[in-house]
Design goal:
With 285 residues, this protein is α/β, with parallel strands linked by helices. It is 31% helix and 31% strand. It folds into two domains: 51 residues, Roll (Spermidine Synthase, Chain: A, domain 2); 226 residues, Vaccinia Virus protein VP39 (Rossmann fold), CATH 3.40.50.150. The chain is built from ten helices and 13 strands. The protein starts with a strand and ends with a helix.
Length: 285
């Protein structure tokens, strides 16, 4: 980062640059380097350890798809666990669901929550104050390994598998997720931009396989995460959960009275159609 631009170099040999209009906040927390700045195209932008995490302009795509796909696929998602998601966008979408009664959010860094509430208030939109929400400041792997609580849906809204977020792509984490999912539960997680991070998809499937009968992926195009479509990992023990009837999704969507800007029941079903090169790589792995 310099006085005029932020250069993200997540992928070797390739970078994207964001013009900085104003630096709103910059600091090193106990866990990571955090900067929030204003960009003419994407509004307010947050980066951790040199990697763009979220922007005001397109966060709704990511948060709607990672939240509403599992919650509407499940027939009774009363208890939800969010791992990460300190910006509050995921919590905002989850508590919109009338059928959801309790949401536990486990975030490793209180500073991320505090700073996002101040500088990215539209992400959480008051969600942290919801009676449904319980925030736990803890390591996500330790939580799923040790908790006695059980959940219908678990959402891993993590950073990329570098730094503090790396353990949320580990076999130990997936084992812990399985132990605290209720029967019939669903696990989803962000899994990178598949065109430039195909290995992450393959490794995730391999690490999920010992714990879940059905491991798959769905996708959405989020402009901030450059390089093509973003993959979301999906895991459950019932393959039918990712192949619901359109009429069922439409009924649940209408009953929840959700106001969405990207998600629709039709997109839900279509998002599980993967490009041929991804299907081939999965078949060969």
């Amino acid at each position: 980062m310099n006085d005029l631009s932020f250069r993200e170099t997540l992928h070797q040999g390739w970078a994207q640059t964001f013009q900085i209009r104003t630096v709103l906040f910059e600091s090193r927390t106990d866990h990571q380097h955090l900067v929030i700045f204003d960009n003419p195209a994407f509004g307010r932008v947050m980066a951790l350890d040199g990697i763009i995490q979220t922007t005001e302009r397109d966060e709704f795509i990511y948060h709607e798809m990672l939240a509403h796909v599992p919650l509407l696929a499940h027939d009774r998602p009363e208890d939800v666990l969010i791992i990460g998601g300190g910006d509050g966008g995921m919590l905002r979408e989850v508590i919109k669901h009338r059928r959801v009664e309790r949401v536990v959010q486990v975030e490793i860094d209180q500073a991320v929550i505090d700073l996002c509430r101040e500088y990215l208030p539209n992400h959480s939109a008051g969600a942290f104050d919801s009676d449904k929400a319980e925030v736990v400041i803890a390591d996500g792997v330790d939580f799923v390994t040790e908790t006695d609580r059980r959940f219908d849906v678990i959402i891993s809204d993590s950073t990329d598998p570098v730094g503090p977020g790396e353990v949320l792509f580990s076999s130990r984490f997936y084992e812990g997720v399985k132990r605290c999912l209720k029967p019939g539960g669903i696990f989803v997680a962000q899994n990178g931009v598949v065109f430039v991070q195909l290995d992450e998809t393959l490794v995730t499937r391999q690490r999920l396989a010992p714990w879940f009968r059905d491991q798959s992926f769905y996708s959405a195009a989020v402009p901030t995460y450059a390089g093509g479509t973003m993959n979301f990992a999906w895991a459950s023990d019932d393959p039918a959960l990712r192949q619901p009837e359109l009429a069922v999704l439409e009924q649940r969507f209408a009953a929840e009275d959700l106001a969405t800007r990207y998600y629709t029941p039709a997109i839900h079903l279509a998002s599980f159609a993967l490009p041929a090169y991804v299907e081939q790589a999965l078949a060969e792995s």
